[in-house]
Automatic annotation (TrEMBL):
GO cellular component, one term: ATP-binding cassette (ABC) transporter complex
Keywords for the protein's UniProt record, in alphabetical order: ATP-binding, Cell inner membrane, Cell membrane, Membrane, Nucleotide-binding, Translocase, Transport
Protein family (similarity comment): Belongs to the ABC transporter superfamily. Spermidine/putrescine importer (TC 3.A.1.11.1) family.
Example GO biological process: putrescine transport
InterPro entries, alphabetized: AAA+_ATPase, ABC_SmlMolc_Importer, ABC_transporter-like_ATP-bd, ABC_transporter-like_CS, Mo/tungstate-bd_C_term_dom, P-loop_NTPase, PotA-like, Transp-assoc_OB_typ2
GO molecular function: ABC-type polyamine transporter activity; ATP binding; ATP hydrolysis activity
Short name of one Pfam family: ABC_tran
Assembly behavior: The complex is composed of two ATP-binding proteins (PotA), two transmembrane proteins (PotB and PotC) and a solute-binding protein (PotD).
Natural source organism: Hyphomicrobium denitrificans 1NES1
Matches recorded under NCBIfam families: potA
Name recorded for this polypeptide: Spermidine/putrescine import ATP-binding protein PotA
Its job: Part of the ABC transporter complex PotABCD involved in spermidine/putrescine import. Responsible for energy coupling to the transport system.
Length: 369
């Protein structure tokens, strides 16, 4: 499981039954959620699921149709944005083109009427933290995308807000820069001890940066948990499929015993999985199985439980690992993953070869939805 970053356990943000309607359309539906002080929290979901709307209600740019927003114990539902202890960093960065880096970073502080020498000190501190000092006198159009992103972040933290809101902050960066920037965000969040709430549709990004993730679907919260818990124990097929690769087998429960569920899969196989999900014999269920939990081998396993034969249809070679797409007898395609370092001792598996797939009883997750 991914490490829990030990945020203090007091909720700094509380959404209470928050609903946002645009005319008849509910973009956010009765969301109740606690976010804790010093957490790096991610709102994750596909385009249009309502994650930006939820964030914008916290910033004060949208007003909930129903429900309350509480920050640090204070009901802020009716406060204007500038009176809230939050600061938002936008995907477009929204930098002022005519101002220098220094000018942009200090903008919010000047608006507040802070003394000049204090502003200069704060701006310098933020520039140092984001390694922007060499660019202090440049204008935004003289900076790379990654540098502009850092200026926007420096501006968001310079006011020392209690909560920093990030709406797809790295959306404009290419993959490599994006990964670097993710670690930078984590470093800044940790050094400043500020609560960060990020909106992203990128599951890898949420898994990397966040201590907890809320997965949203069609305006609803579907699961709130640590990245490790969401990956290992997704609650629904939607979440299992949205976070990482997964194989899903449909079937009916044939027996429940000793904390294990036995499943007669629709394709004729019998599976057995350790599970605490309350299910009844005869109930329709799905077995979700991550590719890396499946062993792929030429030899038939000793036990017939959780073992299926198939033929390798194609292989995705990714250097350190390979994905094996295996066509099983009833026509399903199952993906197994194997680390290539092991090839030195294992026989290579090639295209069109007959193989066996098997996995232990604690490898899969039984889902009812
Ligand atoms: P994306 O990642 O594409 O921004 P999202 O999950 O952040 O998606 P939201 O921007 O929160 O989604 O939008 C949720 C839904 O609400 C969408 O269907 C959107 O069209 C709708 N919506 C958002 N703002 C408004 C508005 N001002 N008026 C009408 N509908 C809106």
């Amino acid at each position: 499981f991914a490490p829990w970053k030990d945020p203090a356990k007091s909720p700094i943000v509380r959404f209470e039954n928050v609903t946002k309607k645009f005319d008849d359309f509910a973009a956010v539906k009765t969301v109740t959620l606690d976010i804790f002080e010093r957490e790096f929290f991610a709102l994750l979901g596909p385009s249009g699921c309502g994650k930006s709307t939820l964030l914008r209600m916290l910033a004060g740019f949208e007003r909930p149709t129903e429900g309350r927003t509480i920050v640090a114990g204070q009901d802020i539902t009716d406060l204007p944005p500038y009176e809230r202890p939050v600061n938002m960093m936008f995907q477009s960065y929204a930098l002022f083109p005519h101002m220098t880096v220094e000018g942009n970073i200090g903008f919010g502080l000047r608006q507040e009427g802070m003394a000049k020498d204090k502003i200069a000190a704060r701006v310098d501190e933020a520039m140092a933290m984001l390694e922007l000092r060499p660019f202090a006198k440049r204008k935004p159009n003289q900076l790379s995308g990654g540098q502009q992103q850092r200026v926007a972040l420096a501006r968001a933290i310079a006011k020392k807000p209690r909560i920093v809101l990030l709406d797809e902050p790295l959306g404009a960066l290419d993959k490599k820069l994006r990964q670097q920037a993710q670690f930078e965000l984590m470093r800044i969040q940790e050094t400043t001890g500020t609560t960060f709430i990020i909106v992203t549709h990128d599951q890898e990004e949420a898994m990397t940066v966040a201590s907890r993730i809320a997965v949203m679907d069609k305006g609803e919260l579907v699961q709130v948990a640590t990245p490790g818990d969401i990956y290992e124990n997704p609650k629904t097929r939607y979440i299992a499929g949205f976070i990482g690769d997964v194989n899903v087998f449909e079937g009916k429960v044939s027996a429940v015993s000793d904390g294990c569920v036995e499943i007669d899969a629709n394709d004729g196989y019998k599976f057995k999985t350790r599970s605490s999900e309350p299910v009844a014999v005869g109930q329709q269920v799905w077995l979700a199985l991550r590719p890396e939990k499946i062993r792929i081998a030429h030899e038939q396993p000793a036990s017939p439980i959780n073992a299926i034969p198939g033929k390798v249809e194609d292989i995705g070679y990714l250097g350190s690992i390979s994905h094996y797409h295996v066509r099983t007898a009833p026509g399903e395609r199952v993906t197994a993953l194997r680390a290539n370092a092991a090839h030195a001792v294992e026989r290579t598996i090639n295209w069109d070869e007959n193989v066996w797939l098997d996995w232990p009883v604690d490898a899969g997750v039984v889902l009812t939805r």
